[in-house]
């Protein structure tokens, strides 16, 4: 049975070519679009079973914000990121945002279709080679420069710094929300954004990265400076 899907990519020719190939294979393509902005709103409005969401820069901070928005408004939509060969952190950021898979731009149509079927079935859809690269990075992380903690800290807002410190302290979403006087859904969004910006896939990885780069010590001093 065909899948109800959308193809959203800034490269119109790629979006339309992929949509045409998928239609020929029996899938129902609701739209093949190339919006510079408004991708999330388009997907939320059409509510496909699967969305192929293109990106040219998977490592750029905030690039997966549309995925976060789609999953918040339409959690039943399976989002597959379509992009270039990513870094392990790029893959982690995509999954942290709520994507269920990552498909390379140069993947054959058969591979794209397999990923779509896995996504609709609720399975993770990512090539084994990409997973191996992610595991290799986690097991043997590249040495971080001395100023890595400061660079990461500058990527976070003051509120996200507080969330990171609380995550490192082992607080769950409800405790974070209560401690910061915000709704649990807002706290969850803050946590997702912190994971995306740090390029990690879990709270444990975020805490480990923060500790390894000295980010926690810098964050603690920043929070201390803000106290009256």
From TrEMBL:
<dbReference type="InterPro" id="IPR016032">
    <property type="entry name" value="Sig_transdc_resp-reg_C-effctor"/>
</dbReference>
<protein>
    <submittedName>
        <fullName>Helix-turn-helix transcriptional regulator</fullName>
    </submittedName>
</protein>
<keyword id="KW-0805">Transcription regulation</keyword>
<keyword id="KW-0804">Transcription</keyword>
<keyword id="KW-0238">DNA-binding</keyword>
<dbReference type="InterPro" id="IPR000792">
    <property type="entry name" value="Tscrpt_reg_LuxR_C"/>
</dbReference>
<dbReference type="GO" id="GO:0000160">
    <property type="term" value="P:phosphorelay signal transduction system"/>
</dbReference>
<dbReference type="GO" id="GO:0006355">
    <property type="term" value="P:regulation of DNA-templated transcription"/>
</dbReference>
<dbReference type="InterPro" id="IPR011006">
    <property type="entry name" value="CheY-like_superfamily"/>
</dbReference>
<feature type="domain" description="HTH luxR-type">
    <location>
        <begin position="149"/>
        <end position="214"/>
    </location>
</feature>
<feature type="domain" description="Response regulatory">
    <location>
        <begin position="4"/>
        <end position="120"/>
    </location>
</feature>
<dbReference type="InterPro" id="IPR001789">
    <property type="entry name" value="Sig_transdc_resp-reg_receiver"/>
</dbReference>
<dbReference type="Pfam" id="PF00196">
    <property type="entry name" value="GerE"/>
</dbReference>
<dbReference type="GO" id="GO:0003677">
    <property type="term" value="F:DNA binding"/>
</dbReference>
């Amino acid at each position: 049975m065909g899948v109800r899907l959308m193809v959203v990519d800034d490269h119109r020719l790629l979006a339309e070519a992929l949509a045409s190939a998928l239609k020929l294979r029996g899938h129902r393509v609701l739209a093949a679009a190339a919006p510079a902005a408004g991708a999330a709103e388009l997907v939320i409005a059409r509510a496909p079973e699967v969305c192929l969401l293109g990106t040219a820069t998977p490592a750029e901070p905030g690039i997966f914000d549309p995925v976060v928005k789609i999953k918040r408004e339409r959690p039943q939509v399976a989002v597959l990121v379509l992009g270039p060969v990513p870094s392990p952190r790029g893959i982690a950021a995509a999954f942290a945002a709520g994507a269920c898979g990552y498909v390379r731009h140069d993947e054959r149509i058969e591979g794209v279709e397999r990923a779509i079927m896995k996504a609709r079935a609720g399975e993770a859809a990512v090539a084994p080679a990409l997973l191996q690269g992610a595991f290799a990075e986690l097991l043997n992380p590249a040495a971080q420069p001395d100023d890595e903690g400061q660079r990461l800290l500058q990527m976070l807002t003051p509120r996200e710094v507080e969330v990171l410190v609380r995550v490192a302290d082992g607080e769950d979403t409800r405790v974070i929300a209560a401690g910061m006087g915000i709704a649990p859904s807002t706290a969850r969004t803050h946590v997702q954004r912190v994971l995306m910006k740090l390029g990690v896939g879990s709270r444990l990885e975020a805490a480990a990265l923060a500790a390894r780069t000295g980010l926690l010590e810098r964050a603690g001093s920043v929070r201390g400076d803000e106290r009256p």
